[in-house]
Fold:
Amino acid sequence: MASSTKKNLDLSKEQIKDLDWKKGTDANSFLAEEQRLSKQKPMIHQVSQKTIGKFSARINQMTSEQLDVELEKRQLSTSGDMDIRRIRLKHYYKYELTFQCKNPLTMIEQQFEYIAVVDFEATCEDQQDNYQNEIIEFPIVLINVQQQTIVDKFQSYCRPIINPILSKFCTDLTGIEQHQVDSAPTFVEVLHNVETWLNERKLLLPANKHTFAFATDGPWDFTKFLQLQCQLSSISYPQWATEWIDLRKEFAHFYSVKRCGINKMLAKLGLTFDGRPHSGIDDATNIARIGLELLKDGCILSLNDSIHSSDPKSTPRNNNNDDDSIVFKD
Structure:
């Protein structure tokens, strides 16, 4: 868990309106109002590892029924396997001790207003080395972080240039038909449409820009597929895709488990895959569902990977079982 991240009590809508009104007055009045509001914020208490350890040990002794009772008391989800439910309660206990007030999860300050989940689909062949994958589906699923819900989606197919005819393996895997890519715009056109879509939602425009980040399942969408596609299309790599949230990595760290794929993450949370596996928009939607569960459990989603730090040669197959640091040690 990103314990070093700043956590503050969000201002209520009434307080925000009050601050906006005060901006029209003199500076002294405005500063006085800020000081008044800051006094209303709860104190953040330092919690020792020894204290956390005691709570952790107590939770480890709980039966499944006892665990669910404690979760229900705090209006937390009782879904998921025992390990996930234990960690969920441990995180909540830590927030209770830190803020010493009711509903401590509401006091966590997230870094982003929106999170855009992407999961590309690309041309492929079965067991063919050095194959040049071209992106053929560009989906985005947009999460409103404060509302903890999916609020919008974008999807477009892309017409491949190097290998315009989809292999049977590719169609069987992704469900994408030849006629869908034949009538689709090129990747360059789709990228332009993506940026227009983001700008319309004030996610890229400098003025009135909402804070947002992209999120993926692993590093490969950006380090491998997007980077290669930009090279094949002879265009610059987009600046907005240089850093992102790797939800696979965040999931493993927050819940103290080894990294795993979408289906296993969903299963650990007590969820099942909704839609067709390897459909870009369905994959992105299910990755977003995992992100929402992290948010609901108090995970602070922050940038944890970049185009400069990831290895583009790595593959999902050899990264499924990477070790992650354990948040709670008993």
In short: The longest strand covers residues 135-144. The radius of gyration is 22 Å. Confidence is low (pLDDT under 50) at residues 1-40, 315-330. The first helix runs from residue 13 to 22.
